[in-house]
Design brief:
By secondary structure, the protein is an alpha/beta fold. The chain has 6 helices and 7 strands.
């Protein structure tokens, strides 16, 4: 065994050898401890729906993939009956082409009903997925929910309470006044 940069036949010194005991010890044995990782987001897909002014907001949480469509699809479909739908991908941990299909279906249903859809997304990998699918220009995502609500208020001519009003929930099961209803 040779040290990096040493001639091929040069022996390795005993203090440069890495054995099983060297990896577990930390700084006392010359190695730096591994940094603490933050807790991973919950991968369980779910939709949280609530009202903000005249907008219905649907937050998509967890991993939105082929396995998660059954969990969030029906709730998102129900929200498409509203005149203004804001889909917030901020709490989304993973998003693939199955999620693109879900967004396209929601957009089609909202437009067919004469409504508008806004998308909130700032995650670079999700934005990359939107660009790869040719949908970044179609959805024109904004980075924050506040911006989406402000733009919607401006588009509707300032009618309604916009984002300045109290946050209320949709009238579905599990709704609690003043907070989001998980579904």
């Amino acid at each position: 065994m040779t040290q990096p940069g040493a001639p091929r036949r040069a022996p390795v010194s005993s203090d440069a050898a890495v054995g099983p005991g060297r990896l577990a010890g930390g700084a006392a044995d010359g190695l730096c401890p591994l940094p603490e990782r933050p807790a991973a987001p919950d991968p369980e897909p779910r939709a949280v729906m609530y009202r903000s002014g005249r907008c219905t907001v649907v937050e998509l949480h967890g991993e939105i993939d082929i396995a998660g469509l059954a969990s969030v699809g029906p709730q998102l479909d129900a929200a498409t009956a509203t005149p203004v739908l804001v889909i917030d991908l901020t709490p989304t941990a993973f998003f693939d082409c199955s999620g693109l299909g879900l967004l396209c279906r929601a957009r089609r249903r909202v437009i067919e009903g004469g409504g508008r859809l806004r998308l909130v997304c700032s995650h670079p990998l999700i934005l990359r997925t939107l660009r790869a699918g040719g949908l970044a220009e179609v959805f024109a995502p904004v980075p924050t929910l506040a911006q989406a609500l402000h733009e919607e208020e401006a588009a509707s001519g300032g009618a309604g309470s916009g984002s300045g009003g109290p946050r209320t929930t949709s009238g579905g099961a599990g709704a609690t006044p003043g907070g989001p209803a998980e579904g």
